[in-house]
Amino acid sequence: MRYRRPIRAGALLGLAVLLAACAPAQTDSAESGADSMEGTLRVWLFSEVDQEPKEKVVDEAVAEFEAAHEDVTVEVQYIPVDSRAERFQGAFNDPSSAPDVAEYGNTDLAGYVEAGGFADISDELAEWKPYDRISDDVAATARVDGGTYGVPWFLGVRALFYRTDVFADLGIDTPQTLDEVVEAGRTVREEKPDMLGLSSGGAYTYGFLPFVWAHGGDIAEKKQGSYTAAVDSPESKAGLELYSQVLSEDVCPPQTCAQMTGNESVQNFIAGKAAMTIGGNFNLNAVDASEVAEDTAVIPLPGTEPGSVAPAFAGGNNLGVLAGTDHRTLSVEFTQLLAGKKYQQRMYEAMGNLPTLGDVQSDAAAADEEIGPFVETLESGTRFVPVTGAWAAIDAEGVLPTMVQRVSSGDASVDAAAAEAADSLDESFGGE
User: Fold this and answer.
1) Phi-psi region for residue 20, left (φ > 0), alpha (ψ -120 to 50) or beta?
2) pTM over 0.85
3) Is residue 23 a part of any domain in this protein?
4) What are the residues whose beta carbons fall under 8 Å from the beta carbon of 27, sequence distance 6 or more?
5) Domain count, the chain
6) What is the pLDDT of residues 37-86, one digit of tens each?
7) In this structure, is residue 5 part of a structural domain?
8) What pLDDT does 14 receive?
């Protein structure tokens, strides 16, 4: 699974933000009866480091849409990702400043829905045939409490990157299970003490969670409409125990790895300091541009049994319709156009964004073998964080990283750290 062609840009992995107190809901166009079929359709999309390819694709979609709607002008504004919380908060407070259609990170959605910011477009999507080609796992990233508040536009999932030259030199076979991943890292560390066996940090939530999910555990369970912590279940603790072996002197020493984030974990691999890392499709171009590119292969992160794949976090961005739009029909139509097959394909070619439509994923995997492990990971089933406004606070407070770090540092046993994290989660869920 070696990759040679650069892939430009990376998927936004739904960075959690803490919204201020819930803003007043916009006036829903369905209630006001406003649904104009002419005028200006305002669209917010996220700005990118390398934005020109994205703009070209969007401009093409805008031209097609305007040609099909004689009295409509589409006005696209690119907003910074880092200031999106303030921008959306302002839009929810003042509908006159709000867009009609917006791109948003999927882990932000629950808070936006609680603020009354996005429209439920379930009925329209039920009649849109391409929507059936989005897996239920992925479609769930746009759902809150039975409503559907957008279309998943692109995804970011993670897989196992490893050094083929190091494995060949040490006679290590490609890992078939998570236990074998850890054992391979242990062998590397023993034979090459200047390298990290598996670069994956204590602050790398989405590197850690597949270990929990693969063992049948979870962050929380939803019962009777509310979440209850599940990180202290036997299955979750089995995943935590195995991950704690990664953050050990034998694989990735705590003094180096306990505080590492996902970006730092992958940077070690790119710099040639690690034999393995858990990286995303959005990291491919950085690895491809590095000195380790020719000696790198990618496989799905294996699960607990040979042939299985550890569930990955389905991070990504969605397109949604703002609740206060007075162009609801046009907004849904533009969302469907930009999220449809033609422009998902165009966006993949321009930006390397992993498509959400199954047939576009298959086409991408057939055309570019380097994307194959990520598509296989998607097809094996992905997972998501609790769909609740409380997640922003949980993420900001570092509940899960703290649990992992306490175990790796020896400050707490797996049982004690998991129990503490469960208490923190339940407190946050109870305060929704």
Assistant:
1) beta
2) yes
3) no
4) 95, 323, 324
5) 2
6) 999 999 999 999 889 999 999 999 999 999 999 999 999 999 999 899 99
7) no
8) 36
